[in-house]
Amino acid sequence: MIRSTLLAATLIFLPGVAAAQSQGADDAQAKPTAPPVPPTLTGEWGGLRTTLRDAGIDLTVNYTSELAANVSGGTRHLATETGQFSFGATVDMARLVGIPGGTLTASISDRRGDNLTDRAGIGALLQIQEVYGRGQTWRLSEFSYSQKLGGGIDLKLGRLPMGADFASFPCDFENLTFCGNPVGNLVGGYWFNYPLAVWGARVRKTQGDFYVMAGVYEDNPNNNRNRFIFLENGATGVTAPAELGWTPRFRGLPGTYKVGGWYNSSRGADVLDGTNGQPFGLTGSDPAQRRGRYGGWMLVQQQLTGRSTNGPGGPVATHGLSVFLNLTQADRRTTRIDNQIAGGLTFLGPLGGRPMDDIGFAVGRNHVNSRAAWAELLAAPGSAHVDCEYVSELYYSLHARPWLIVRPNLQYIVHPGGFHQATDVVVLGTKTSITF
Asked: Please, what are the domains in the chain?
């Protein structure tokens, strides 16, 4: 239902956009200008990229590689590499066809490689190499249209990765605890982050330093199948997130403060109780099915020292210290990892001669729901109790070339998997990003 509604809305919406822009076109009156030329390994492709960019079509190609080796912990010591190719196109509809404030976005990804967490028997709750997962395959990671409607309102619809807008967070660290949208890391069975995309729509209203945003996305477990997906049957409900944000400047330095929550209308298995109301680990019954899954988040990022400038997407740091704090809580009826706390700091330009390098350090806690832990003990008497996993990561980001970032890191995991008896894990890694 949501797919057909969105497809129909797109067909109806696009022809009327130009007329709508005649009212309240305060967001799109300026003459469109070509985006700046990004530094890439392969240059301008003999002028083709320049020609397309001047017409409003910006193409991007990137490869991210993550190497990791456990020097302590796990069942054996290994080194693995996993990576992701991403191909993107952003179309400025004002430059291409004269629709002010419109943007068409498409992205295709391909993941490959091996996963240290499983192959070395580490058993961590979240991936040590964040770029691994969701199937090692080609995927349509986004196909969307966004439109500024005036009055600070903009709309986006299509196939979307849910974490691109709601609870969005950068992905500089290699451990998944500190990378990207934290909600999908906890409830990934129905909240799909990149590289997965689902049919959905969101509307955002910005007023000064504040914004409010709400959306609705198809809940379809088949989107997680290991293949290229555009249309897929099997929807079971919807996920509806909402977020309130504040983007102030303190002493001229930018910050971002977000609070939000979500509700999912599908049924989910109870982690402890069975259909008879008793723990299924004791009675052998099937898990009870609970309708309505939910949770909330708070994300904080603030630059404390240094300098900043206004970039295409808003203010960005050009030098100095920034901090972050992320808190996420999911419902305890249906979620095994029910909450996460993560915080850290980054410093851009720590060395005088290397202004683009940065250093980062983060610590986090991933908590196993006590109800789920109790169910596991009942199902397997005598098994080890699980509780919290503690993760830390330190990296140095070397901007070797404008198109090449090499980021060696050190990860330390206490109680991997939440098992107090498990040996602590030490991982040496390197995250490399190449823009072609």
From this structure: 2-12+53-75+82-435 (2.40.160.180)
* pTM metric for this prediction: 0.90
DSSP 204-222: EEEETTEEEEEEEEEE-GG
What is the 8-class DSSP label of residue 34? P
For β-strands 425-435 and 249-250, DSSP reports them as: unpaired
Task: In whole angstroms, give the CA distance from residue 71 to residue 424.
Answer: 10
Distance (Å, whole) CA 311 – CA 357: 18
The answer for 61, left when phi > 0, alpha when psi is -120 to 50, beta otherwise, is beta
Length of the chain as a residue count: 436
Give residue-wise pLDDT tens across range 378-423.
988 878 889 999 999 999 999 999 999 999 999 999 999 999 999 9
**b/e per residue 81-107 (b: at least 16 CB within 10 A):** bbbbbbbbbbbbbbbeeebbbbbbbbb
pLDDT digits (tens, 9 = 90+) for 328-354: 999 999 999 999 999 999 999 999 889
DSSP three-state, residue 269: strand
Q: Which DSSP state fits 334? A: T
Nearest-angstrom CA–CA distance, 95 and 101: 10
Count helices and strands in the chain by DSSP H and E runs = 8, 18
